[in-house]
Amino acid sequence: MTPFLALLTSLPTGNSTIRMRVWRALKSTGCGVLRDGVYLLPAAATQAAALAEAESEIKAAGGFAMTVELNLKTPAQLEHVRKLFDRSGEYGALVARITTARTSLRKFGKRKTGTLVQRLQRSLDELSGIDFYPGQARQQAAGALAALRESLKPLAEGEPHPAKGKIRRLEPAKYRNRVWATRKDLWVDRLASAWLIKRFIDGKAKFAWIDGPRDRPKGAVEFDFDGAEFTHVGGHVTFEVLLASFGLDDDTALASIGRAVHFLDVGGIPVADARGLETLLRGIKAKARGDDTTLAEASKAFDLFYSAYSKKESAG
Q1: 89-105 exposure pattern, b = at least 16 Cβ within 10 A, e = fewer
Q2: What are the tens digits of pLDDT across the range 136-188?
């Protein structure tokens, strides 16, 4: 059975400061409390190193602490311990916050609305980071936040509304040597889509960055705006629609990128690499001069992500 690490402690009774500091540090790791003074974490958890740090701090303060490996012998024992890490109540409280926000956020301006949504996303990310056995509660919270983002889409100028219908499989030969048009000031979905187009769909593609649909060049293939040939469909962002349209959705590396793009564009189930990708793209965008340069640099980043995912797939 999966081993756990257990921190056994006996804190100095007269030192309330060290008691509170250690408890706060352990609580932030998401540890389970088996009984007073006995704290558990899955041995494979990245937070497990915090137990050794707490052990050292307690000993330095004159207390007793020992970290041991706990190997459970029966399924009943495992079930009991895993219940110590149940996050259902915390996810429920987060869903309640999201529900309240959904009824009140539209009263605020765009900037304040964005800040509040970011706080909710950060809360979900932090809770997901200590959810060692994710289940339905996590999916419900992620879905509630995604629904909140979707309801606020009209506040984001130019963001496409999801179209209805099915995604049709297309003939790639009809989309080669074309001009592809999308909204200027590129961000995640448009950057990833443009990279996908150039790398996997139309190697000789040329791009037009436009202010709006009225400025689209005649004969151009349009993407990621209302009325475009390729845009959001149902629960799929433009990148995912392009994958499905051109039969690229069986590529697991592209699918992994798609999940990160989806999460960053419309929310949903958190993706481990998404925040790293977002930080990288923000850095590129801050430094680049214009959309052409942004795409050129972002394409290098997507190439690296694609290579890493491909290598992981072949190794696994």
Answers
A1: ebbeebbebbeebeeeb
A2: 999 999 988 887 876 665 555 567 778 888 999 999 999 999 999 999 999 99
